[in-house]
């Protein structure tokens, strides 16, 4: 975006110095690498989830690191969702809904997503029977 | 009550009014377009629409029937698309009886049945007699077993709380809706220059204030806006809480309020999700607080979408007693813990940033805006207040009840039962990470969504502890000594 705009500007108006253009270009390349290649990896590495018979634990976030705990008893339903891109890579999101909130575990492999979903729903059913 | 019944014929009128209210923009546009082309066209259009609307209202009244069969409310309605709504009484959260102006003219009420997560107004019967509404409520509420006892309980309510005129006046004059009213007034003001053209306005000001557009003008404009907003919120609150009566019996709370439109609201005890004590900025110095109730499935007016006022005005000292009497399970004594001292600077800094959001534009765009720099002082005071009021702790009787207190502008104290919590989380940004602080938040169901209570800048260990509190496995090893000895640096 930025470099193309600058190039446009440059081609019409010679006032913009060549070096500013180069610097902007480098900056844009750096940002692209950061946002497209590096941060997703860190984000992916930061994402942790744990499901057991009592609760669902989610840990994620680079800048804001978040830990969320959802008691399995409160779970109302669990979905797996898959858009066209995720389908291409045979991945799926697991979406957990309580009466007030929804939580998403993004981009698990289809097999894992199905397993997690059925695990949560089994635990939820069991937890509700206990009550 | 097994016969399908129709509403009172007045429902046709309320239906018409509702159609008008929903489509007023379209109607307005049509009117303007119509009046532009032909002088006869406009009035004809109005009459045409009115007739159509009346017929529509009448037909929808004709189609609308309701009945109670085996504890199930069945509503059939719809002109083109027929809708059959069957609502089982076990799922009913709240039965809400209210009377709008039209209903009042004919001595009628409307009754609205709400379930958890319902957002539509489908289960609403627009116009029936009050007796009929009471009968409907009775037959929907109690289960087969104890209908007789129920009636007795209904007849002899345990406690009645009524808002006196004096209290009403105090409530209205210290209403926390000032902010909302303010934004409305400012919004209107910003539209004024589009209606009156600028030159004429400048000419007007120059004639009124020959000297100069000076400091006093800016100041008086601000004062004027403040007074108008205060009046708006005063009368708004007055109308809303007029004749506020809270009746408590064995199974439910019953709230009645309103001047023009009388609202009645019934909340069974087991639907209460959380209790909140709110001390508005204006009320706190006077020592007053209000008590707010979060309940599933009840969506109130727009200002308080998910919660409803349990009682609008109480002396701070009476709140404990009130809760003890009305919702005893929420009466707790707490040894609360606070964020560590190191958190003060984060509270203060944040308020500085927030105040800069106002100061910088004021400085740049408003004459004498530089004086808004003084806003930093109250902002800092507020920041310290926010730190000072942030508290969290378990009830000393059991670890099942949690109290969270925090302040944005008003001080809010939430009392939450563990089994009502839907999820909890901690969040940490890099600045907090440096100081080992986290922000803790917890969500309960409220209305068709959730209400989140947040406390900022707890220590990491406290955050983890309160997160752990929620997990079933954690309950056993959470001992109260453990928690209170946890961070001695946090308690002063």
Q: What overall form of chain A do the CA principal axes indicate?
A: elongated
Largest sheet of chain A, in brief, is: 3 strands, antiparallel
Point out poorly predicted stretches of chain A: none
The number of helical segments of chain B is: 17
Principal-axis shape of chain B equals globular
| Strand numbers in spatial order across the main sheet of chain A | 1-2-3
Summarize the structure.
The complex is a heterodimer of chains A (131) and B (492). By secondary structure, chain A is of the alpha+beta class.
Write the layout of secondary structure elements.
The complex is a heterodimer of chains A (131) and B (492).
Chain A: H1 2-12, H2 18-46, E1 48-51, E2 55-60, E3 65-71, E4 75-81, H3 84-88, E5 91-98, E6 102-109, H4 110-130
Antiparallel strand pairs in A: 1-2, 2-3, 4-5, 5-6
Helix pairs in contact in A: 1-2
Chain B: E1 5-6, H1 10-22, H2 24-37, H3 41-63, E2 65-69, E3 72-77, E4 83-88, E5 92-99, H4 101-105, E6 108-115, E7 124-129, H5 130-141, H6 147-155, E8 159-162, H7 165-173, H8 178-195, H9 198-208, H10 215-241, E9 245-248, E10 252-257, E11 262-268, E12 272-279, E13 288-295, E14 307-315, H11 319-326, H12 344-365, H13 376-389, E15 391-394, E16 401-407, E17 411-417, E18 421-428, H14 430-435, E19 437-446, E20 449-459, H15 460-470, H16 472-477, H17 480-484
Commentary on this structure:
The complex is a heterodimer of chains A (131) and B (492). Chain A is α+β, with helices and mostly antiparallel strands and 131 residues long. Chain A folds into two domains: 2-42, no CATH class; 48-130, Pleckstrin-homology domain (PH domain)/Phosphotyrosine-binding domain (PTB) (PH-domain like, Roll). Chain A is elongated and about 75 Å long. Chain A is built from four helices and six strands; from the N terminus they run H-H-E-E-E-E-H-E-E-H. In chain A, helix 1 runs antiparallel to helix 2 (18-46). Chain A has helices at residues 2-12, 18-46, 84-88, 110-130, and strands at residues 48-51, 55-60, 65-71, 75-81, 91-98, 102-109. Chain A starts with a helix and ends with a helix. The longest helix of chain A has 29 residues, at 18-46. A three-stranded antiparallel sheet of chain A has the order 1-2-3. In chain B, the strands form four sheets. Chain B has a seven-stranded antiparallel sheet. In chain B, helix 2 (24-37) runs antiparallel to helix 3 (41-63), helix 7 runs antiparallel to helix 10 (215-241) and helix 12 packs antiparallel against helix 13 (376-389). Chain B has three domains: 5-156, no CATH class; 157-317, no CATH class; 332-492, Roll (PH-domain like), CATH 2.30.29.30. By secondary structure, chain B is α+β, with helices and mostly antiparallel strands. Mean pLDDT of chain B is 78; it is low at 144-155, 298-305 and 474-492. Chain B contains 17 helices and 20 strands. Chain B starts with a strand and ends in an 8-residue tail after the last helix. Chain B is globular. In chain B, a hairpin with a 2-residue loop joins strand 19 (437-446) and strand 20.
């Amino acid at each position: 975006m930025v470099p193309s705009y600058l190039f446009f500007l440059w081609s019409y108006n010679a006032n913009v110095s060549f070096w500013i253009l180069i610097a902007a270009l480098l900056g844009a390349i750096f940002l692209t690498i950061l946002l497209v290649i590096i941060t997703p990896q860190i984000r992916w590495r930061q994402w942790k989830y744990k499901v057991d018979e009592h609760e669902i634990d989610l840990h994620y976030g680079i800048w804001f690191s978040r830990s969320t705990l959802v008691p399995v008893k409160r779970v109302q339903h669990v979905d797996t969702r898959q858009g066209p891109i995720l389908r291409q890579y045979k991945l799926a999101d697991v979406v957990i809904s309580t009466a007030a909130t929804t939580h998403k575990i993004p981009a698990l492999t289809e097999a894992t997503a199905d397993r997690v979903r059925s695990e949560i729903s089994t635990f939820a059913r069991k937890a509700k029977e206990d009550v | 009550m097994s016969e399908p019944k129709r509403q009172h014929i007045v429902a046709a009128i309320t239906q018409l009014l509702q159609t008008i209210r929903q489509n007023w923009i379209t109607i307005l546009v049509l009117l303007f377009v119509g009046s532009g082309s032909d002088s006869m066209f406009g009035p004809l259009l109005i009459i045409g629409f009115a007739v159509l609307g009346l017929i529509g209202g009448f037909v929808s009244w004709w189609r609308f029937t309701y009945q109670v069969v085996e504890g199930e409310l069945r509503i059939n309605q719809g002109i083109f698309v027929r809708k059959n709504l069957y609502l089982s009484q076990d799922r009913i959260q709240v039965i809400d009886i209210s009377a709008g102006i039209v209903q009042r003219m004919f001595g009628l009420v409307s009754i609205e049945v709400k379930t958890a997560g319902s957002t539509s107004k489908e289960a609403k019967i627009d116009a029936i007699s009050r007796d009929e509404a009471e009968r409907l409520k009775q037959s929907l509420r109690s289960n087969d077993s104890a209908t007789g006892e129920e009636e007795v309980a209904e007849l002899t309510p345990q406690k009645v709380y009524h808002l006196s005129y004096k209290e009403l006046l105090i409530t209205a004059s210290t209403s926390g809706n000032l902010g909302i009213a303010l934004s409305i007034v400012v919004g209107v003001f910003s539209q004024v220059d589009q209606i009156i053209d600028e030159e004429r306005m400048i000419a007007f000001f120059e004639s009124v204030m020959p000297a100069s557009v000076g400091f006093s003008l800016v100041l008086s404009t601000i004062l004027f806006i403040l007074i108008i907003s205060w009046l708006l919120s005063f009368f708004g609150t007055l109308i809303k809480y007029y004749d506020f009566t809270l009746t408590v019996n064995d199974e439910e709370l019953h709230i009645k309020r309103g001047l023009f439109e009388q609202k009645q609201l019934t909340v069974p005890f087991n639907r209460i999700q959380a209790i909140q004590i709110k001390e508005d900025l204006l009320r706190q110095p006077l020592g007053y607080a209000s008590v707010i109730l979060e309940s599933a499935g009840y969506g109130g007016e727009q200002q308080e979408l998910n919660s409803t006022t349990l009682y609008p005005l109480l002396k701070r000292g009476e709140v404990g007693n009130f809760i003890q009497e009305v919702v005893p399970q929420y009466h707790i004594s707490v040894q609360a813990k606070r964020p560590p001292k190191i958190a003060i600077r984060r509270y203060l800094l944040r308020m500085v940033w927030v105040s800069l959001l106002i100061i910088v534009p004021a400085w740049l765009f408003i004459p004498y805006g530089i004086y808004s720099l003084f806003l930093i002082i109250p902002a800092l005071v507020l920041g310290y207040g926010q730190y000072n009021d942030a508290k969290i702790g378990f009830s000393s009787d059991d670890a099942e009840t949690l109290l969270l207190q925090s302040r944005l502008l008003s001080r809010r104290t939430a009392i939450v039962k563990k089994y009502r919590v839907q999820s909890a989380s901690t969040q940490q940004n890099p600045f907090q990470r440096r100081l080992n602080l986290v922000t803790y938040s917890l969500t309960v169901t409220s209305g068709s969504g959730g209400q989140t209570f947040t406390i900022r800048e707890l220590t990491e260990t406290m955050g983890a502890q309160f997160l752990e509190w929620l997990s079933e496995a954690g309950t056993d090893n959470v001992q109260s000594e453990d928690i209170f000895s946890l961070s001695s640096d946090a308690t002063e």
